[in-house]
Structure formats: structure tokens, C-alpha cells
Amino acid sequence: MENRESRWAELFRRGNRGDGAAYRTFLTEVTPVLRRIAAARSPGLSAEIEDIVQEVLMAIHGKRHTWREGEPVLPWLYAIARYKAADAWRRRGRPSVPVEDLAEILADERSGDPSAARDLGQLLAGIDTRSAGIVRAIGIEGESAGEVGARYGMTEGAVRVAYHRAMARLRGLADGKEERE
Fold first, then answer.
1. Is residue 94 domain-shared with residue 124, that is, in the same domain?
2. How far apart are CA 148 and CA 64, in angstroms?
3. 13 and 89 housed in the same domain
């Protein structure tokens, strides 16, 4: 039996290509999962869960062209559900649920977003090794330009310039305006 990721990705892919039955099946299968995500991310908003689910489904439909077929569909879906649940909280105002009640739901901040790490890794693989090392050292690990310069035999100014150029290349790769090296 196929796993959920590959099944839903295939259904969504076929739906985006015009297969209405596959698209309906996709939406039918993801709705219960979206409902659970909305409920988990919106404690105290139980009366609004179905509204949130409907907003998520409308966002999926409206943004389905933004999903890249080679990428997993689950993180894309989960991100939309998270944002719509957050939007519901913003509309309502300040949450009235104590933070302690959310301890089981909140993610461990140290673990980060696994899809973001994968995406960053793919982008960094598209630039030269030295530039990628400089971005990792300064942008991720928080090292100073002086520390990085000592390691690469560069001045602080040269490291800063290399860092900014690497970031510009990464933005170009992310936007699809530049090709990988």
C-alpha cells in the first residue's frame, strides 16, 4: 500500500493536470487531517474549526499552482493549515488559553522546521562550496566575519562582501532567476 505522502502527491498532481475525480479524492482524503490540525492549532476555537478547514481548502484550491510537483505535498499542506489557524487567532484577538496548556502542541524550537532545512540545503548546494560555508558560518551558526575570515584566509570586509553576494545568489536561486553552479 502506498504511503500517504506519495498517494496524495499523485492525486494532487493529477488534479492539477485536470483530473477532477483525483482532485475530489485528494480533497476528501485530506479534509479529516486538516480538521485535526486546525483543532490542535486552535484550542479554544472549537466553534470555528470548520470555518478554518474551509479556509484551508479554499487556500489549497487558490494556491495549488504554487506547489512544485517534485516537492512533498504534506509540508505544503501543513503550512497552509498552520497559517490559516494563525489567521483565525489573529481575527479573534489575543488567545485566552494559557501557554502551559499548549506545551504538548508547540514544537520544540530547537528542532526547527525540517522542510526549511531541506530547502536551505538544496539552495546551498547550488552555490560554490566556499560561499555556502560562509553563509552557514555567519547566517546559521552566528560566527563573526573575523572568525570566518581567519578560517578562509580572508579579510573581514572580503567575508562580508562574499556573504552578501552569496545571499544574493541564493535569493536568485530561490526565485528561479539564477541557475545552479
1. no
2. 41
3. yes
- Residues with Cβ within 8 Å of residue 148, at least 6 apart in sequence: 134, 137, 138, 154, 159
The verdict on residue 180 lying in a domain is: no
Q: Is residue 109 one of the residues assigned to a domain?
A: no
Q: What is the mean pLDDT of the chain?
A: 81
pTM reported for the whole predicted model: 0.49
Same domain, 94 and 51: yes
How many beta carbons lie within 10 A of that of residue 74, not counting itself?
16
Q: Is residue 181 part of a domain?
A: no
pLDDT for res 29: 92
| 41-76: pLDDT as tens digits | 777 777 788 888 899 899 998 888 888 888 888 888
What are the Cα distances from residue 137, in Å, to 47, 88, 121, 127, 164?
47, 37, 14, 15, 13
Residue ending a domain, choose from 52, 69, 103: 103
- Total domain count, the chain: 2
Domain that holds residue 96: 4-103
**Cα torsion angle, 22, 23, 27, 28, sign:** negative
Cell of 125: 548546494
What pLDDT does residue 1 have?
34
| DSSP code per residue over 21-52 | HHHHHHHHHHHHHHHHHHHHH-TT-GGGHHHH
Residue 174 has pLDDT above 80, yes or no: no
